[in-house]
Design brief:
By secondary structure, the chain is mostly helical. Helices cover 78% and strands 0% of the residues.
Length: 101
Protein backbone atom coordinates (compact mmCIF):
# COMPACT_ATOMS: atom_id res chain seq x y z
CA UNK A 1 0.00 0.00 0.00
CA UNK A 2 1.34 3.42 -0.89
CA UNK A 3 1.61 6.43 1.37
CA UNK A 4 -0.98 8.30 -0.70
CA UNK A 5 -3.58 5.56 -0.31
CA UNK A 6 -3.11 5.37 3.45
CA UNK A 7 -3.33 9.15 3.78
CA UNK A 8 -6.57 9.16 1.77
CA UNK A 9 -8.03 6.60 4.18
CA UNK A 10 -6.81 8.68 7.13
CA UNK A 11 -8.38 11.83 5.65
CA UNK A 12 -11.66 9.94 5.14
CA UNK A 13 -11.62 8.83 8.79
CA UNK A 14 -10.98 12.39 9.93
CA UNK A 15 -13.77 13.72 7.70
CA UNK A 16 -16.31 11.14 8.84
CA UNK A 17 -15.35 11.76 12.46
CA UNK A 18 -15.65 15.52 12.04
CA UNK A 19 -19.08 15.15 10.48
CA UNK A 20 -20.15 12.80 13.26
CA UNK A 21 -18.84 15.05 16.01
CA UNK A 22 -20.46 18.20 14.64
CA UNK A 23 -23.81 16.85 13.46
CA UNK A 24 -24.87 14.50 16.25
CA UNK A 25 -26.69 15.48 19.42
CA UNK A 26 -26.14 12.28 21.37
CA UNK A 27 -23.17 12.25 23.71
CA UNK A 28 -22.19 8.74 22.65
CA UNK A 29 -22.22 9.61 18.93
CA UNK A 30 -20.24 12.78 19.66
CA UNK A 31 -17.57 10.75 21.43
CA UNK A 32 -17.51 8.21 18.61
CA UNK A 33 -16.86 11.04 16.15
CA UNK A 34 -13.98 12.28 18.28
CA UNK A 35 -12.58 8.77 18.43
CA UNK A 36 -12.69 8.50 14.62
CA UNK A 37 -10.81 11.78 14.32
CA UNK A 38 -8.10 10.53 16.67
CA UNK A 39 -7.86 7.23 14.80
CA UNK A 40 -7.43 9.05 11.49
CA UNK A 41 -4.65 11.20 12.89
CA UNK A 42 -2.98 8.14 14.40
CA UNK A 43 -3.18 6.30 11.06
CA UNK A 44 -1.58 9.26 9.29
CA UNK A 45 1.25 9.43 11.83
CA UNK A 46 1.94 5.71 11.55
CA UNK A 47 1.86 5.92 7.75
CA UNK A 48 4.39 8.76 7.71
CA UNK A 49 6.66 6.88 10.08
CA UNK A 50 6.55 3.47 8.44
CA UNK A 51 6.16 4.36 4.75
CA UNK A 52 7.92 7.70 4.67
CA UNK A 53 10.89 7.60 6.99
CA UNK A 54 11.38 3.92 7.70
CA UNK A 55 14.01 3.31 10.33
CA UNK A 56 13.57 1.87 13.82
CA UNK A 57 10.05 1.15 15.13
CA UNK A 58 9.87 4.12 17.48
CA UNK A 59 6.75 5.40 15.72
CA UNK A 60 4.88 2.19 16.35
CA UNK A 61 5.69 2.36 20.05
CA UNK A 62 4.37 5.92 20.15
CA UNK A 63 1.21 4.74 18.37
CA UNK A 64 0.63 2.06 21.01
CA UNK A 65 1.03 4.64 23.77
CA UNK A 66 -1.42 6.98 22.00
CA UNK A 67 -3.94 4.13 21.65
CA UNK A 68 -3.70 3.42 25.37
CA UNK A 69 -4.26 7.10 26.16
CA UNK A 70 -7.26 7.13 23.81
CA UNK A 71 -8.77 4.13 25.61
CA UNK A 72 -8.40 5.84 28.98
CA UNK A 73 -9.86 9.06 27.58
CA UNK A 74 -12.92 7.25 26.24
CA UNK A 75 -13.44 5.43 29.55
CA UNK A 76 -13.35 8.71 31.47
CA UNK A 77 -15.65 10.33 28.90
CA UNK A 78 -18.22 7.56 29.15
CA UNK A 79 -18.06 7.75 32.95
CA UNK A 80 -18.82 11.49 32.75
CA UNK A 81 -21.70 10.88 30.34
CA UNK A 82 -23.13 8.24 32.68
CA UNK A 83 -22.83 10.60 35.66
CA UNK A 84 -24.58 13.43 33.77
CA UNK A 85 -27.35 11.07 32.69
CA UNK A 86 -27.92 9.78 36.22
CA UNK A 87 -27.94 13.28 37.67
CA UNK A 88 -30.00 15.15 35.06
CA UNK A 89 -31.58 12.51 32.81
CA UNK A 90 -29.99 14.32 29.84
CA UNK A 91 -28.92 12.07 27.00
CA UNK A 92 -28.47 14.71 24.30
CA UNK A 93 -26.55 17.95 24.14
CA UNK A 94 -29.78 19.91 23.66
CA UNK A 95 -31.17 18.89 27.05
CA UNK A 96 -28.02 19.95 28.86
CA UNK A 97 -27.86 23.74 28.89
CA UNK A 98 -25.06 24.24 31.38
CA UNK A 99 -23.14 22.12 33.85
CA UNK A 100 -24.05 24.45 36.72
CA UNK A 101 -26.46 23.03 39.25
Amino acid sequence: MTLTAVLIVAAALIGIGLYGALSQQSFVMLMMGLELILNGVLLAVIAFWSLGAGGPPRGQVLAIVVMAVMAVEMAVGFALVTAVFRRRQADTTEKLGTLKE
